[in-house]
Design a protein that fits this description.
Distance between the termini: 62 Å
Helix content: 40-55%
Number of helices: 14
Largest sheet: 5 strands, parallel
Oligomer: single chain
Number of domains: 2
Strand order of the largest sheet: 2-5-1-6-7
Number of strands: 7
Structural class: alpha/beta
Order of helices and strands: EHEHHHHEHEHEHEHHEHHHH
CATH topology of the largest domain: Rossmann fold
Shape: globular
CATH architecture of the largest domain: 3-Layer(aba) Sandwich
Strand content: 5-15%
Radius of gyration: 23 Å
Length: about 350
């Protein structure tokens, strides 16, 4: 039986710079009819993660060599196995493989077969040969085993399966692959899949190319409130006391450098007109009545599709998250951030 072709879905990615208020837009789009919205904790990382689709395109299409292309395919296949696998106490081997993202479950069993079909379509030929370059990436025990065999003069000690690939239709095949995955996730009858942090805010236009119809909304926020929020972080579902989220920054000085660097990098590339919307959290909350029509126009939606208005995103409640810095105990840190990042601060 031939599997059904995926639907012609639209794709919307919501991203930010960490603690910049993306969750408000997640709640807002949950109010629209026809939108399948991923849980806020689930991030579809396959495009942006090291060894993922963006790296694969660079190696196969943008900066090809026989070494880099083979290595990129090898890394992508290994990454896909880890993303697909599920940790299980009944399967001890899974604890050496799975990273805990459970893509086979999330995509309803389609992830692994779709990935294998995708890779098969990208590769023109494979053969086993002596090929020293993968030795730089294999595990320590595997490297030891092969060197030991080499000392025993086993001629195939450093043989690997080499993949020849330089597809002219990389984008076409990637679009088809992602369409299969997202079709599995989308609810029946919905027309748009909403995911989180798949594109990132730095060069979203590159990621847009992987979809026939996609848009990106990027949320930013007053750096003083970002700093306070990251220092009062509580993991979702946890009863832990608020504590600094160290992945963002450790000190006010480092925070300022990180904040400015990320915006500087984001400004290096031009956004695709009509496909990327950069949104200030404070404006969405304080000027909701004027900002909402702009968002709906960007998405190509009419007011009639906003069927659950204010059921998830309530601007009056979100307003409590504006101006957190005013009551923060360390006002010296707040003053430093205001001094270093004044052009990003929202004054009221």
């Amino acid at each position: 039986m031939t599997p059904a072709l995926p639907r012609n879905l639209r794709y919307l990615d919501l991203s930010g710079y960490a603690f910049t208020g993306k969750h408000a837009v997640i709640d807002l789009v949950r109010e629209f009819a026809g939108y399948t919205v991923a849980h806020f904790q689930f991030e579809f990382n396959l495009l942006r993660i090291q060894g993922g689709i963006r790296d694969l395109e660079t190696a196969l299409a943008d900066d090809w060599s026989p070494i880099r292309s083979d290595a990129a395919l090898r890394r992508f296949r290994k990454l896909a196995r880890r993303l697909a696998a599920k940790n299980a106490w009944t399967n001890p081997a899974s604890w050496f493989e799975a990273v805990g993202w459970n893509y086979d479950d999330f995509f309803k069993g389609r992830f692994t077969p779709a990935t294998e079909a995708y890779l098969k379509g990208l590769v023109e030929a494979t053969w086993r040969t002596e090929w020293p370059y993968p030795a730089g990436e294999i595990g320590a025990w595997e490297l030891f085993r092969r060197k030991f065999l080499q000392q025993l003069r086993v001629p195939s000690a450093f043989d690997f399966d080499y993949a020849l690939s330089a597809p002219d239709d990389f984008l076409v095949r990637t679009r088809a692959y992602l369409a299969v995955l997202l079709d599995a996730f989308a609810d029946h009858g919905d027309h748009t899949v909403v995911m989180h942090n798949s594109f990132e805010p730095f060069n979203p236009s590159r990621a847009l190319r992987y979809f026939a119809d996609a848009r990106s909304i990027i949320v930013d926020r007053d750096p003083r409130d970002v700093f306070v929020a990251q220092n009062r972080y509580v993991p979702p579902g946890s009863n832990a006391k608020p504590a600094p989220y160290r992945a963002v920054a450790t000190t006010p000085e480092v925070f300022c450098r990180r904040f400015r660097l990320m915006r500087r990098v984001a400004a290096r590339t031009a956004d695709t007109p009509g496909r990327v919307l950069r949104l200030q959290y404070e404006r969405l909350v304080r000027d909701y009545e004027r900002t909402l029509p702009e968002i709906m126009a960007f998405l190509g939606e009419s007011p009639s599709t906003h069927v659950r208005a204010r059921q998830y995103f309530v601007p009056e409640k979100s307003a409590r998250n504006i101006g957190l810095w005013r009551t923060y105990p360390d006002q010296a840190a707040i003053a430093l951030i205001h001094s270093e990042l004044a052009e990003f601060c929202i004054e009221s």
